Amino acid sequence: MASKLAQKLLDPAFQREYAAYPPEHRAAFEARVAWLKKAHAHQILPAGDWWSIWLLLAGRGAGKTRTAAEQVWWWAWTQPNTRWLVSAPTSGDVRGTCFEGDSGILNVMPKILLADYNKSLAEIVLTNGSLIKGIPASEPERFRGPQFHGAWLDELAAWEYLDDAWDQIQFGVRLGKRTTIIASTTPRPKDLIVSLADRDGEDVYLTTASTYANLDNLAPSFRDQILQYEGTRLGDQEIHASILSSEDTGIVKRSWFKLWGAEKPLPQFEYVVQSYDCATSTRTQADPTACVVLGVFKPSEDKGMSVMLIDCWSERIQYPELRPKVISESEEIYGDENEFGNGKKVDLILIEDKSAGIVLLQDLQRAGLPVRSYNPGNADKTMRLNIVSPLIARGRVYLPESTVNPGCARDWCDAFLSQVCSFPDSKHDDYVDALSQALRVLRDMGFVNIDPVADPDLYYADDRPKRDNPYAA
Length: 473
Description:
The chain has two domains: 39-244, Rossmann fold (3-Layer(aba) Sandwich), CATH 3.40.50; 254-444, Nucleotidyltransferase, domain 5 (2-Layer Sandwich). The longest helix is centred in the N-terminal third of the chain and has 16 residues, at 23-38. It contains 15 helices and 17 strands. The protein is α/β, with parallel strands linked by helices and 473 residues long.
């Protein structure tokens, strides 16, 4: 394409016609030719009109930003009076990377084409009447209302509210005869990214590129640093743009969970806690509410206290419908003499002290149930799981083994395992929250820990009084 444009510029007839073009038209054309002459193969817009989404998965430094910025301003210039959306993880990313960055639109587009740049509104207006509007993905509700001919979505896999923002953008990109979206990102195993990649050849054109494709344009210090990750799983993702399994990037590993043999009778539980993560979403389709039930037990005389997942469920149910559900679940008896040893009633119902959970807590307290609120403070979801993950890593969390698939947990554990081991890249985190708060409370109550408990006889003579630990449960 670049060579054809260069040949056209050398044609005398075209040169005479070209000399009569307005200055901004000549500047735009020359900038486009200059870009296409040096662009790598993965930076060239895909041919054909069958696709509506160009998914550009590329490693760090592969030139994703420059590619998208060059394409968006060209679209906006060649289609007068059109509207184009630019979105990135935060407002700072929109402004500092997509608009004002070294490879951003304002630095790659000829200055003569710029009519106005309103930094506070994140709007670039071209002299032909086209608008390039920046909206951060961190505020998905702002996508409601505006409409566009196309969009550039930068670092899509890093968006905090990925699904909400993506859904709203699909409704807003609706103008013209053919809408086009560029989604440029270093991949992460998010459900949406995997789904888009799977649609390659349908309405998605997938382009992949590694850091090596643009290595000559990168600072030597950056090359030295990032290439240290060559041969690692992180390097596969960040350098070669491979979509890893979501469990490869998870905080908790599936192998950390212990299996309680299917041939063994399940133990007698000393304490049972039902932990709830209540749906709080205001979306039309509510997020799930999840319940995780853990039983505290001692696997053997030589092992410390542990917990076993004895039930879990996730359902799209909110308050007030959730109230009778929780009351009904509180009456469950976990285990009997044939399977669980001795049947055990629920000792504690744990609900996070937020949103609908506050009202639910008050209702359950009035009903006389053993309910307790949980307040995580300033700890975010990732921090909460990191706090309790050592309990899982040290083999203190058991799952009942399947009776038909030896070496695997029972089928009803599958959704729980998949979500917990994929976090923070899992689509939902309801099981994660329910598990982390239950383990945190059980640890703080002294039921389960990984720190060795000192024998007081080693530190006190027989004739000296022994002190009780005032913090012990």
